[in-house]
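ARCHIVE CARD
Drawer: 12
Card no.: 0347
Subject: one protein chain, sequence and derived structure
Cross-reference: see card 0346
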Amino acid sequence: MLGKKMVTAQKRGETRALCLGLGMVACSMMMYFFIGITIVPFYTKSVWTTETVCKVLKANIKDKVFCPDSKGSEDEEIFPYPCLQVWVNLTASGQEVMLYQSEDTLERNPKCSYVPNKLENSKEVKAQIETIASNFKKYQTFPCYYDPGGTQTNVLLSRLYPAKGLLFAFLWPTLMFTGGCLIIVLVKISQYVSVLSAWQ
């Protein structure tokens, strides 16, 4: 009687472990799919792939511009901000080009090097942009990214999805997939050993 209970408990444990392993594999596949349709296209479309050194030539704050909004809402009229323009000397080619914070900045407003997050206090926005401008003037040389193909004549301070970020995004689903497969293999080995022991 006790032996039957132990066998039943073992089968239940194996079933739960097998379900856990299959669930981990399924979740990892969903994460792979999600990363593949969200992050990977942005990474492959970005042409700013080569890192070089940029030297600041000038960092000026122009008149206020309106916050761009692709949806065309009325936020454009209530969120003006100072337009920071940073021009750098590209070491790789010696050209004078405009610097943008990331691909998103260029898409939102190609006139400005930096687009602040929406803040209700305009003084905070102005102080933030002035601080960024002073930092550029203070630290004249820094790494940046440019387009080696020449289709884009501007440079980026940082990429939204660099190669390291993409690898890190794939790290967790890979670990989950490996763990799920390992659990399934261990359960199958346990079942095989149990059947072999019972047969002997």
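Annotation on reverse: The first strand starts at residue 50 and ends at 66. Residues 50-161 form one domain.
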